[in-house]
Amino acid sequence: MLKLTSQDVEPRVRLANYIRTSHGKSSWGPRFIPDLEILLIIEGVFEFSAEQETCDVRPNEVLMIWPNERHTFAAKSPKPRGLISCIHCELAPVGRLEQGDYSPTPAPPRVTAVENSQAIHGLFKQMAKVFDGYARFREQILSSMCRAIWLTLAGQWGASAANRSPRLEQMLEYIRSRLCSSITRQDVADQFAMTPEHVNYIFRRELGLTPTQFIHRERAMRAYKMLHEDHMSIKEVSRALGFCDPFHFSRVFKRVLGFPPRQA
User: Fold this and answer.
1) Is the torsion defined by CA of 97, 102, 108, 109 positive or negative?
2) Which domains does the chain have, with CATH numbers?
3) What per-residue confidence (pLDDT) applies to 217?
4) CA distances from 227 to 1, 126, 165, 250 (A)
5) Is residue 128 helix, strand or coil?
6) Tag placement on the chain: N or C end, fewer CB within 10 Å?
7) pTM for the full model?
8) Which parts of 116-258 are beta strand (E)?
9) For 17, which DSSP code?
10) What is the C-alpha separation between 218 and 214, in angstroms, rounded?
11) Would you report the helix, strand and coil content of the chain in percent, each value rounded to 5?
């Protein structure tokens, strides 16, 4: 069996939707599904039940449902009206998870409380829109967006905030407070009286990212909010976040989130 690391994930998306639940459709199952389902709760409280396991899933939480797992999923709120978004996929370019051809490493928890909820919500919503359309390179766009979701979640599985050292937390706070300037690994090293190599070591050990990758990710997440919610232009966001030009900004944004800023 192939041990599929998060970095090697290349999803094949079979379905992506964005569903408003109601009295007419607020429960599913008992049922089996043939592929992995990644399910985001946006509004409402839902109950998931499988063999010897029952749990509540709340807004800004992602539920993982494994292939061929007999389960039920239903609204638990007094009013069943809610909002969910689902992705059905294979994580590897070939093979099937249900047949044991590969296994994701680390194995995700049943429920993940999302840290970057607005950005993740935007990705799920955009995936449903792309899935329903006929855009050129549709399959590749869906794969890239699903990979961005998986990697963002995997970053939480690999390094929880509880396991971060006080020094790293200070570095993260320092970087976040200066995202609108041209901050570099050298700036972090100078601020904390370390060599750039040691800063890199701390980030890789505790976050699984380099300082530059963290800076790019934080900027991309903030840029998504500025584009999607504040309706700023790409040029305005690029300038506000300290990028040298909109082209560099667009490359970084797409590398992190899997789609260009014009689709935010």
Assistant:
1) positive
2) 2-158 (2.60.120.280), 161-263 (1.10.10.60)
3) 87
4) 42, 14, 33, 12
5) helix
6) N
7) 0.62
8) none
9) E
10) 6
11) 45, 25, 35
